[in-house]
Amino acid sequence: MTTIEPNDVSAILNVASWSYSLKIALKYENGRVMKPDAKAVIGARKKAAFRTTSFRAKLPSHFTFDFVDGFLPTSPAAGVDLFYPAPYYSFWNTLAISDVRKAHTWLRDLLARDGPYDGVMCFSQGCSLIASFCLYHQAETPLQPLPFKTAIFICGGVPLQVLEDLGIEVSQEAWDMNTKSAQALAEQASTEAILKSGLDRWGNDNGSVVDETELDLKNVFGINFEGIPERLRIKIPTVHIYGNKDPRCPASLQLVHFSSPELRKTYDHGGGHDVPRKTEVSESIANLVEWTASVAGVEASVENSR
User: Fold this and answer.
1) Is the pTM of this model over 0.85?
2) CA-to-CA distance for 22 and 5, rounded, in angstroms?
């Protein structure tokens, strides 16, 4: 493995596809960070590299990026085939727990083979992969450290099927929100919506998106977080980036509350289910990436103090 100097970030790994997943791995000091993406985009390496250019350009030169594809051939996510030809990849093609756990095995093998990684950055389905991996790790091997030190989540949440499998009560309200928001995303991200409305397709009419600081912990879009055991909290520094016009924003805000309050930062980029390339957004995301590098060792001291 390449020797790097302190504070060097030497690899951001993109693991899947962009439209529903974007993966990047960062390396600080003696490790790296991986970023999984959403479902179904062309060789994710090419697409993710393009879509992250704007904020990667704001980072110091010692931050370098690696991009890799997902492992399952799949159909394209809504609107993806308008811009990118096949092949398309995903982490799973169903949300059966057995398929999710197979993806975890693939991820664990990847981390062991290509790591160590200091952190992961993920988009959409990539967030589902990393968040579910973290929660199962906390539930099953709480005394072992995660194989990465930080996580940056962009426009994604935790599958409700995973929460139920972990013994967390999922209300009908949460299931209804999940179905409605997934349908809205499919419609707003579709080729027809892109051709008709462009960026204006990201409406804000779902009526359920609010500032995360205003949420009642007893009912975060159908999940009671006052009843979540501490062992199912993600106990590494996390960043949560979402857009208030994203139909799936409620899922992003649910994921926020699975992270330790003292070790998380949130950022609303103001857009939809995407990463806007505005200067202000790019600078903010770059600053958050640098923040994760600066706190890459914090979780160890927090964990040892409990």
Assistant:
1) no
2) 27
